[in-house]
Each structure stands twice: as C-alpha cells, then as structure tokens.
Amino acid sequence: QVQLVESGGGLVQAGGSLRLSCSASERTFSTLGVGWFRQAPGKEREFVSTITWSGDKTYYGDSVKGRFTISRDNAKNTVYLQMNSLKPEDTAVYYCAAALTGIVRNPAEYDYWGQGTQVTVSS
C-alpha cells in the first residue's frame, strides 16, 4: 500500500503560479509512474499530467500543455506539478495518483490516490 499526500494548493489570481507536491513515505513510490488529475464541481476527473518512475518521459493534457510542468525527486519521494499562467478554468481539486503499470492517462489504471488539494484561481 502506498499513501499519497498532496500539498501546495490554495487561492491565486489569474496569471499566477502554484507548485503542488505529491509525497509518499514508501520507497516503492520511486518505482511507480505518477499522474496528476483534477476534478471541478459537476465535471469528470480530467487528466493533467503524468511522469515515468525515472522522470525521463512526461505527458500533458491539452488544456495545460505549455503552462504546467511535472517533475520528480526520487531522493525525496516527491512529485511536483509546477503550474504557471493559471486561469480560472484551472480551478479544481487536484489529485495525484501512482500506477504500478507505469505511465498512463486513464485514471482507472491508477492503483493509489491521494486525498486531493484545492486550487482556486480568481479572475
């Protein structure tokens, strides 16, 4: 079992930046693909980004490409999501998840989930 904890959410004005962190205490976390998803009220969970266990490959959803950057520090057992040029439509609860199968976009293929962190972007 891997327990994930997100942090870094908050309230920011449009055009601002936030950095989310996803941490785990289990060493196996460094061997797992990790993804970020978000869910706004009344909407389905949306793929944001994912990264391989080594960090050598990353993928982004079309709505965040060029604005968000995913990275990881396996020595710290942490994955980051740097969010720049934030827009009001980025407002959502952001979840990190880990997958035994590696780098995937489908949330159904993730094995472990955090509790989420709220990001609110004001206009």
What does this structure look like?
It contains no helices and eleven strands. The protein has 123 residues and is mainly beta. The strands form two sheets. Strands 2, 4, 5, 6, 9, 10 and 11 form a seven-stranded mixed beta sheet that branches. A four-stranded antiparallel beta sheet has the order 1-3-8-7, with no helix packed on it. The N and C termini lie far apart (40 Å). The mean pLDDT is 95.
List the helices and strands and how they pair.
Blueprint: E1 4-7, E2 10-13, E3 18-24, E4 33-39, E5 46-51, E6 58-60, E7 68-73, E8 78-83, E9 92-99, E10 112-113, E11 117-122
Question: Would you summarize the structure shown here?
Answer:
This protein has strands spanning 4-7, 10-13, 18-24, 33-39, 46-51, 58-60, 68-73, 78-83, 92-99, 112-113, 117-122. With 123 residues, it is mainly beta.
